[in-house]
Description:
Helix content is 9%, strand content 35%. By secondary structure, it is mainly β. The chain folds into three domains: 41-192, RlpA-like domain (Barwin-like endoglucanases, Beta Barrel); 221-358, Galactose-binding domain-like (Jelly Rolls, Sandwich), CATH 2.60.120; 365-454, Immunoglobulins (Immunoglobulin-like). The strands form six sheets. The protein has a six-stranded mixed barrel. Strands 9-12-17-14-15 form a five-stranded antiparallel β-sheet, with no helix packed on it. Strands 8-19-13-16 form a four-stranded antiparallel β-sheet, with no helix packed on it.
Amino acid sequence: xxDGKLRHLLGFVAxxxxxxxxxxxxxxxxxxxxxxxxxxxxxxxxxxEGLVGQVTANxxxxxxxxxxxxxxxxxxxxxxxxxxxxxxxxxxxxxxxAPVWDVGPWNTNDDYWSPNRRYRDxxxxxxxxxxxxxxxxxxxxxxxxxxxxxxxGIDIADGTFWDDLQMTRDDWVEVSFLWLGADPGxxxxxxxxxxxxxxxxxxxxxxxxxxxxxxxxxxxxAVDDGAAGYAPQGEPWSxxxxxxxxxxxxxxxxxxxxxxxxxxxxxxxxxAPGFYELLAxxxxxxxxxxxxxxxxxxxxxxxxxxTVDQQAHAGSWASLGTFHFGxxxxxxxxxxxxxxxxxxxxxVRFDAIAWAPRVDTAAPDARVVEIRRKDNGYQITWxxxxxxxxVATYDVQVRLLPKGxxxxxxxxxxxxxxxxxxxxxxxxxxxxxxxxxAGNREPWPEGADMDTTQAVP
Length: 457
């Protein structure tokens, strides 16, 4: 009897436990699939990197039409040849994925896409350079104390910039940071607009004064960029808000002739043939201008190249020299400038060129520069300079030392040297004068320029 009751009790307990377990199974919630995180996308100002032949932060040598980007933080630089860190860049409907191989622009510690970014007082998605340019953040300086000129948060290599995105100038793009989530794909990114920036810890720099007006010399004929007579070609081009007319065009310099891709020409309508001083206006905004802009002056069938340090002449008219124009009916007066320079990645600025009329009233300065012993006589060499029209001819006189009178030897010659002899053991003195193309002739010097006692053996 006891055994029967015990079996009955155990059966009841087992039935109770089974029912409780079944109830728990039925009550368990259905597991939901985790939501996929889409990579954050921000609107960023982009610039072309260029710098062909230089080495990126990961050791890659930059090739022509290369394909990669640079971001201003070492934390997301992919190893050379890999795409560990990638971004999708979209511009006017065109979209491309590119690896991060370089560090820049401006900063190297601005991980502006990270919720734990270095500059905590700026919103996520807003580069420090952008805040510096538009809000005076950090006094307008980058982490190395340089004045930030562009609000760029990404640099794009030439092949991605020109070929994939078909960009012709620095501009705003949409950037998806693919290590932060799934690729939204072309056209599917939702652009996140960063909230307004928190007031910077450092008081913002006072607003820059408005660009000073540019005045053209009275009587000069000026050809401005974008006006009649100005002809740009190639790519890429950018604009800045200063210069004649309140703006100017610029592109980046390259030291490699086979990489040069942009140039422009200025051609005036001159009222009459004559001498004109060429003046190139160099705008002062933007900074970082080339120190070796190569202007080519086409005048009366000849070509003269003039190198100008645009950085040193910022905010002023730089003289390219004085030339005669209109003497050759088949030669169109013009000036050309390209992006080929002695430096790399600097701004080459294209603004106004002015032709200012000049009258040549100064005589040239000519003199004997060397007497060298040659055979049984002497080789006499002379030279001269003129500040405008140039030396056209020379007159040379000679006298016997010690008390001989001056005698004409060469008259109206363009040569700059001749042999004198035989000397027969005697010594002679020489003097020279020049005449320029405008008809100005210098007077004879009172004494000799040199004599044969000073001859080089």
